[in-house]
């Protein structure tokens, strides 16, 4: 039986949605969207059809499209992703926007991304602020390999990608901006058994103490690593903005705020190092 591109897509629609079917077929044929549109009557060979049908079956069993095709768009860049890293989320673009608005275009600036995963945040910032010196840290060796691969693929050189447990081993008073999208899902949260989360690494998703352990750790220790006037920006869960602002206040941050994502959910909170409080501490 001869199957055209149009027919293969139509057959797939009962198992996966339109856009996903197109992405999987592009990947199976190693072509772009324009090719699919222009060649809808082309006949697929046996191997192409088998590859596509297998991808559709895996997707319909729940595997994320990004892992199947090995890539995900984030901001304006394409990142290699594997099951070793979180799939970059559209809501994390808010964290990048807020970071970019605080990093000068014409001056150097030291930026730290904690829990870099695929490098989505650190590399997007590095690309858009070539004068910035970005440090990207992760505990997972497999994630670090992917972040390094992405830096190479994107031709980004103003980033240092290093292994570390949050801020351990970094220099005090170093950074003008610290950003993080840490794990913030509570252990036992039912979302962990749903959708893409089932396939993503637990180290990227889950945190102890109701999902707040990593956020608490970063907020408590970040002031020591911020330069004068430096800022901290954190992505967090849909119901964690209030506690984040409280923790920031307890760590003597000033100009504390929370910012909504496009869905209207308070998604990023942050603040600035209070240099007066640190000056007082130094005098004591
Ligand atoms: C939610 S993912 C964020 C990935 C990426 N920054 C993004 O936004 O797509 C959290 C990341 O934190 C890393 N991580 C977890 N515990 C860590 C620790 N103790 N120190 C450093 N990184 C850690 C995980 O390996 C994971 O890559």
Automatic annotation (TrEMBL):
The gene is prmC. Residues 6-70 form the Release factor glutamine methyltransferase N-terminal domain. One of its GO terms (biological process) is methylation. Substrate binds at residues 181-184. Belongs to the protein N5-glutamine methyltransferase family. PrmC subfamily. S-adenosyl-L-methionine binds at residues 115-119, 138, 166, 181. SUPFAM superfamilies: S-adenosyl-L-methionine-dependent methyltransferases. The keyword Acyltransferase does not apply. It comes from the Bacteria. Residues 98-189 form the Methyltransferase small domain. Keywords: Methyltransferase, S-adenosyl-L-methionine, Transferase. One of its GO terms (molecular function) is peptide chain release factor N(5)-glutamine methyltransferase activity. It is an enzyme of class 2 (transferase). NCBIfam families: hemK_fam, RF_mod_PrmC. InterPro entries: DNA_methylase_N6_adenine_CS (IPR002052), HemK-like (IPR004556), N5-glutamine_MTase (IPR050320), PrmC_N (IPR040758), RF_methyltr_PrmC (IPR019874), SAM-dependent_MTases_sf (IPR029063), Small_mtfrase_dom (IPR007848). The keyword S-adenosyl-L-methionine applies. Methylates the class 1 translation termination release factors RF1/PrfA and RF2/PrfB on the glutamine residue of the universally conserved GGQ motif. Its EC number is 2.1.1.297. It catalyses: L-glutaminyl-[peptide chain release factor] + S-adenosyl-L-methionine = N(5)-methyl-L-glutaminyl-[peptide chain release factor] + S-adenosyl-L-homocysteine + H(+). This is Release factor glutamine methyltransferase. Pfam families: MTS, PrmC_N.
